[in-house]
Amino acid sequence: MTRQQIYNEIRARSPLDIYSAPELLEALELFENEDLLEDLEDLYQEWGKGVQLNRAREKEEFERIQKCESLFEFITEAIFNHGDPSVIPPLLKYVPSDDTDQDLVFMEDYSSEQICNGITNARCFGEDYIPVLLGCIHELLPRAMANADSFLYQMILDDLVYFKETRPLVSYFYLAQKESLMQIFDYSIEKTLEEVKEGKSQEMFNCAIDRISRPIISVSFENEPIDQIAFFRQEFLKLHGHDG
After folding, report:
1. Which partner for 180 in 118, 126, 138, 204 could form a disulfide, CB atoms 3.0-4.6 Å apart?
2. What range does the domain containing 230 cover?
3. Is residue 129 part of a domain?
4. Helix, coil or strand: residue 237
5. Using CA of residue 12, residue 15, residue 18, residue 22, what is the dihedral sign?
6. CA distance 63 to 157
7. Is residue 196 part of a domain?
8. DSSP classification of residue 96
9. How many domains does the chain have?
10. Alpha-carbon span 55 to 69, nearest angstrom
């Protein structure tokens, strides 16, 4: 099958997901990422030209959007399954903004999660996604700080769990733009402290403030998120000549 034949089949059977038609996903995986990335951009432009989901009212509008959503899932999944992290920089443009009204396409959660989870998919990329993402994560600022924060924390968790034997994250910090990554760290610290303040006692909040104000020697997966984030922030500061 040609790519166009695959796309026509997906459109005809939409709404369709990759688990309902694995044979179409396998057929799409036979094509090069370069071609799939071009098709993804064409699809995104097509998707953005019509009425968006948050404003759709007519049956035809919903059907058109469903076709785009199905194609988006198949194309991105085929790209991710190739396991080449060099696709991450061009895919960042599809990561939703904090203010989704400024995006060309309004995505429902399952579409936005498809792209965001794929970018940090350790199963597909291994630890090789970390240096690539660190080198381009600044491109998300300032429009998509929330997702940049999610990406950073996913890298932290992967470092502590999936890559605990090699712990690559700190060794790749030099690839990140200093000011941008510090902005993400500071946003993450502030957001996580706010979650502690809202969800736990004042005493626990004060304890968290005290802990992250001191040098943190090491962390593991069992530590609180605020301690994990603060540890890696301190390590990043050390790289740039600060003691944290």
Report:
1. 138
2. 120-244
3. yes
4. helix
5. negative
6. 38
7. yes
8. P
9. 1
10. 16
